[in-house]
Amino acid sequence: MIEKKEKYSDLINSLPNPGLGLGLRSKHFNYILDHSPAVDWFEVISENFMDSGGRPRDVLKQIAARYPVVMHGVSLSIGSTDPLNKEYLTKLKQLAAEVKPLWVSDHLCWTGINSLNTHDLLPVVLNEESLKNVCLRINEVQDFLQRPLVFENPSTYLTFKHSTIPEYDFLRYMAEETGCGLLLDVNNVYVSAFNNDFDPVHYIHQLPHHRIVQMHIAGHQHCGTHIIDTHDRQVVQDVWRLFALAWRLTGGVATLLEWDSNIPDFEAYHTELLKAKQHMSGILNQESGPEKLEYNNDAISNPVNFLVNDIVVN
Q1: Which helix (H) or strand (E) element contains residue 215?
Q2: What InterPro entries does the record point to (predicted)?
C-alpha cells in the first residue's frame, strides 16, 4: 500500500501545468470546432459524456485531439458509506481511456445514499472516522482506475457539530494517506468562509500547496446573510485576491474558470478567464480597492443536475 501511495504521489507531482482553461459547455461546441480559439485546455464534466454517444462524444473526441483535456466528476460520492458504484467507475475508466485526460478529479463530498442520487454535492463530517472511510475509498478507486485522483474542496453552508478536523487539514491528511492530488476551488473557499465564519486567507495558507495541481475560479450569488455558489456570473474582486494569494503560494498551477448558468458567448467567457493573467502578475491585486457588494436572494446553488447539462438529460 505504501508503494502504491508513493507511486500515485510521484505521478501527482509530475503532472504538467497546462495554463488557463475553460469548462467545455455544449453551447460553445460549434464555436470551438469552427474557430479553434487560443485556450490552453478544457475541463469536461465526466458525467456529461459517460452515457452519451453520438455528436457529444464525437465533439469531445475532436476537442481532445486539439487541446489538453481534464475530466471533472460530480457523482463519485467519495464521502458516502454506500458501496462504491462499480458500474459508474467502469464507465469513468472507459471514458478516461478514450479521452486520455491529464488527470481525473471529483469533490470531497457525498451525493447520495442507498443508491439514490440527491443531485447535489453534500458536505462530509470532518473527523477521524470519516477520514478513514474517505481514504479507504480513494485507495480503492485509484487502484480500480489505475491512476491517482484529484479532489476539490466543496462549497458548504453549514458546519457539523461532529466535525473535529479543519477542512484544510482533512485535505492534507487525505493527500498524505492516499497520494491523491488537490483541486483548490478558490471561490468555494470564499463562499464557505463567509457562510461558516472563518478566515479564507488563513485557510489557503494552511493547505499543502505542493499537492495542489489545479485551481477553480467562479462567480457566486451574495445574498447578504449567506453566499450561494452559483457559477453564473463574473468573478468578484475578493475571489481574485484570494486567487492571487493561492497562485503565489502554489507557485502557479493549472487554473480554470467555471460558468454553468447564464453562460455567456465564448468570447466573453474567455475574456473573463484572461483576467487571471493580471492577478497572476499582481497588477489588479495592488490597484483594486474595496468592492461594493450587491445582494440578491434570487439564487440557486450548483447541484449536480445544474452542472450536468441537457446532453445527458436529452
Answers
A1: strand 212-217
A2: MbnB/TglH/ChrH (IPR007801), Xyl_isomerase-like_sf (IPR036237)
